Amino acid sequence: MSHWFTRIAAVTGVAVLSLTLTSCTSVAALVGFAPIDQASQVSASAAPTATATPLVFNSVFTDMGSIHPTIQLAPQLELQLDMWTEQKTHEWYTDSDKRFSFVISVFDRSQAPEAAFGTKRHVYMSNVTVTATTTTASGASTTPFVLNVNPIAATLDPEALTGPGGLLVTSPKGGFQLESTSIGVLTPDTYGLTLDFAMTIAGEATAGGGATVTQIVHQSIPVAIFKRM
Fold first, then answer.
1. How confident is the prediction for the chain on average, in pLDDT?
2. Cβ pair 145, 196 in contact under 8 A
3. 41, 63, 68, 69: most buried, per Cβ within 10 A?
4. Is residue 63 scored above 90 in pLDDT?
């Protein structure tokens, strides 16, 4: 799995992506996976955006535009979202395109990183939806952006591994990367944008067990929006 993490130019990605602007369907979790309560486990720890303009929105990005929040899917089974931007996040203006890229990986922390891959719980992803919701001075909230992706159709990895639950995302042999996604112009009074990542995940309860349990997990990323000075 040596090639999937290589960044590929956005123009290449456009040719292979099959994207639709819809919302994902809820999937009921099966008995046995024992997923951890996401309300208490989702985290997004990062320094606020460094800028001379005081923030009035709780942005979690660093000044250079990268963040690495994690979600506990089950005991010692961790999903990590690596997200970055092509410009500093204090240059996410209301009247400009705002581009970001992201990688989704799962780590079985119950095993050492160098342990044989067969000893790790295999986790698959069949859908990822990113929904943007605005916060504005007028109080009106809009949804200017929805991205719905089938990871198997969209992956740029020529050696991607799949299963009945979708694209394999367990590290180090699996993962999903999407490059240069663009959010367009927002209303002039927008000062915040919240990106909600909804990921449909199917994970093994025990390594090598084969049977998987499906759940939808969410990760929210708040980003401050600025006006040009």
1. 80
2. no
3. 69
4. no
**Tokens 């927002």 sit at which residue?**
186
223 and 65 Cβ atoms separated by less than 8 Å = no
- Token pair belonging to 83: 């997200």
84-119 tens-digit pLDDT: 998 888 889 999 999 999 999 999 999 999 999 999
The single residue listed with the structure tokens 């992706």 is 149
Three-state secondary structure readout of the chain: CCCCCCCCCHHHHHHHCCEECCCCCCCCCCCCCCCCCHHHHCCCCCCCCCCCCCCCCCCCCCCCCEECCEEEEECCEEEEEEEEECCCHHHCECCCCEEEEEEEEEEECCCCCCCCHHHCCCEEEEEEEEEEEEEECCCCCCCCEEEEECHHHHCCCCCCCEECCEEECECCCCCEEEEEEEECCCCCCEEEEEEEEEEEEEEECCCCCCCEEEEEEEEEEEEECECCC
